[in-house]
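re: ur question from earlier - yeah i can do the single chain one, its not a big deal. heres the input i used so u can compare w yours
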Amino acid sequence: MNTLLLLWKKYRRPFHYPLFPARRRSAFLPVAGCFASLHRVPRYTGISMTLCYFDVFSGISGDMTVGALVDAGADWHALEAALLSLQLGASFRLFKTKRKGMAASKFAVDFTEQKKHRHLPHIEKIIEGAELSPKAKANALAVFRRLAEAEAKAHDVPLEKVHFHEVGAVDSICDIVGACVALDLLKVSEVHCSRINVGSGTVETEHGTLPVPAPATSALLAGRPIYSAGPQTELTTPTGAALLATLAISFGPLPAMKLKAQGMGAGDKDFPGQANVLRVLIGERSQAAEATSVSVIEANIDDSTPQVLAYAMERLLAAGALDVTLTPIYMKKNRPATMLSVISTPELTEQLAAVLFAETSTLGLRITQAERRVLSRQIAEVETSFGKVRIKYNEQGAFAPEYEDCRSAAAAHGVPLRTVVAEANQLFASQRKSHE
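and the output i got, formated as tokens:
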């Protein structure tokens, strides 16, 4: 203990990096048993991240996506130049219109080509030869490959033999490439999406009349939250579904952001009951590496043993739960019980609910939606006298040694865990101080 106190006295004085001379923070070393919440190193500036949120309350198609993104600020002339480089003999128009009184931008592709049938390698060759940024080109190729996978599954054919029909036409190629280029022009780092209104009724295709959502659309949106509302028609097309399935990283409520722009993209039809538009919201987020929606699954259990609950926790974590906790509670009639809580990504909610029903005695679950905030973290290594220990740290200055590294080192050398933790903290703080 005396050694730890001497170390604390030695390193408790304030310090700062020369890059931020006006900002000072105290760097505390831990007294035995104290951990990362007390540690502070100089704060770094947060990296700004541009988010795009698709509000799919009236469905989505490729042309609606391009119109909405240009309406939100994507450079039309740069986008048009990129599309012309596809060399498909098409021309492009962007004009203002209204849907149910709502102003929106309409993207249109004019072409004379009659050919609608293309295979994936042909489309990939067209995209590869275009003058696109590496990111836009990679995204466009990924969208078409995802679409091909859905079509291959629907028709039970190899991926290379997929015969694109409507989505192989010039306008569909330009819609997908245009959407990827527009996102790149807006410097979008992450795409998020609401629940998806797919529509209802039937749609006419090359394969005849099909129910909505069409088979390819259903395959693309598997595991994503969908619903049907409004007119009996197709609201979400395979092209729109492919864009979301490939590019969106979450589906649910609007993530926290500083709103910068809003864009409205018009669909072809003007419905009497709702505005046939796709809305996009463009905003910035800094510091928080994750600000996404999660599902919280809870159950109150009063008739399971500790062993059963511990095994259920292991199964839930193995199945992909972000976190699992067991909280002692009292239920009606003052019966002691345990509240089992699970934090999950939305797409794993049903899978984890099934694990809960299978592994516990609960007859019901509560499922709510919540927002999750996670600061960006980085990993550094320090060489202690007990071996290498990884240190997690963030831009706000907090840091902590990896528990498993410290645990393994303590067990291997027969020393208390807190001794390894204290030395790792001291070395990391010293390294930070040496950067002055």
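The radius of gyration is 27 Å. not sure if urs matches, ping me
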